[in-house]
Structure of ABC transporter ATP-binding protein:
Amino acid sequence: MIEIKNLNKIYLKGKKNMVHALNNINLKIDDRETVAIIGESGAGKSTLLHIMSCIDNFDGEYYLDNIDINKLSESKKSKLRSSKIGIVLQDFALIDDFTVFENVMTPLYFNKKIKDKKGSVMRALKKTGIASLKSKKVSQLSGGQKQRVAISRALVTSPEYIFADEPTGSLDSKTSDEIIKMLFELNSNGITIVIVTHNLEIANQCHHIIEIKDGNIIKDICS
Ligand SMILES: Nc1ncnc2c1ncn2[C@@H]1O[C@H](COP(=O)(O)OP(=O)(O)OP(=O)(O)O)[C@@H](O)[C@H]1O
């Protein structure tokens, strides 16, 4: 479960300018929900997703499964990320010169808990339907295939949460439908999915829609 209380994020631009990207955010996300974060460009969606993914700092309170994130050291946060969280960033964030297999292996290099690393990579690639592409370089793949690699990489540590930033942003509508279907299948297997999206059709398929405007939550609807 996710619980956020009075969370603020201020970016400093240069020495004088402050951007109040998130303003007193309060929200709850239950286990096994699908959540869409929507809002105009610059609203603060990615900032919120990065904070939930434990890759960005903030002021306020954030509890992930009752763990007080602001009390964790960087190394404990990184351990928590590698055990509970899968992240799918905008534009895939893959290493083009690595193979599919090597890209999906990257979160496991420093993971001491998972012993059968090769097996874990292959299981993640099978779940996303790209096991046959394992030896291909990412630079040779289509956008949809790259997104499947990014989702496999997020899955390889068997996370409880997947945070995806515009996972269909650069894909055609057919491929986009396939990727969303895959994320929903993962949800039906028990993973909580949080998606930042501009696409209202995708948002309307989610259990929970959070709309942000100018750093404020203006709607928080659970179906
Ligand atoms: N590293 C940063 N330094 C300074 N300002 C930032 C930084 N990252 C984001 N911002 C600012 O914070 C605000 C929220 O940005 P954010 O990227 O979270 O919006 P968004 O809703 O995800 O936008 P988009 O839909 O265009 O991706 C914007 O005003 C943005 O310019």
Observations:
- The chain has a mean pLDDT of 94.
- Helices lie at 45-52, 74-84, 100-105, 117-127, 143-155, 173-188, 200-203.
